[in-house]
Design brief:
195 residues; 3 domains
Length: 195
């Protein structure tokens, strides 16, 4: 695909802007993308554009996906009257009920864009549980399944070993956690000093 601005170089970036509720998409080469980036100071497109580009390049079943997306265009939210087609144009939902009305296509959209439909955000820094280790294990298990499906057995073996090591670390952490007896206050009856 060629750059839509210059028409000379191959497009490496997909830029989407929403202007007055209308979605405008453009495929740009690195030089034209840099020119657009200069017009929008303070925004760093470099990392975001690379991520979006890799998603678009690896998008499975392009025409089939478009057919499925248009299949849901007529879905309507009963509360605000917004259609799924309107949501696709502007990228914003009309009300809280839209989440339920568009649940099926939005679940597929989240799966396609993020690779998962369940939030796997960061754990607060003060949490001393094995939650982050468990989340890492779950993420690695997903990678392991993909590696096996892609017949990348060396990568799968490395992932398996890493999962085993994390499981062992999690077990050690859980064994180290000891429940301490409650501390007694001064002057409280039954203290060891009174005996």
């Amino acid at each position: 695909m060629m750059c839509e601005d210059c028409g000379i170089r191959p497009a490496k970036f997909h830029l989407m802007t929403i202007i007055n509720g209308d979605r405008v998409e453009r495929n740009l080469c690195p030089a034209c993308m840099a020119r657009h980036q200069k017009q929008l100071p303070g925004l760093d497109f470099s990392n975001l554009a690379g991520i979006l580009n890799s998603i678009l390049e690896n998008k499975p079943g392009g025409q089939e996906q478009e057919r499925r997306d248009t299949e849901y265009d007529d879905l309507v939210c009963e509360q605000c009257g917004m259609t799924y087609g309107e949501f696709q144009k502007c990228g914003m939902l009309g009300c809280a009920a839209c989440y339920q009305a568009f649940k099926t296509p939005m679940t597929a959209l989240l799966q396609r864009v993020h690779g998962n439909t369940q939030h796997a955000g960061r754990v607060p820094g003060g949490v001393h549980s094995g939650t982050s280790i468990r989340m890492n294990i779950d993420r690695l298990k997903q990678k392991l399944q993909k590696a096996i499906a892609d017949e990348e057995y060396e990568q799968a073996a490395k992932l398996r070993d890493t999962i085993r090591a994390l499981n062992a670390q999690l077990e050690r952490r859980e064994q180290d956690i000891r429940v301490r007896p409650p501390e007694r206050l001064e002057g409280e009856e039954g203290s060891e000093d009174d005996v």
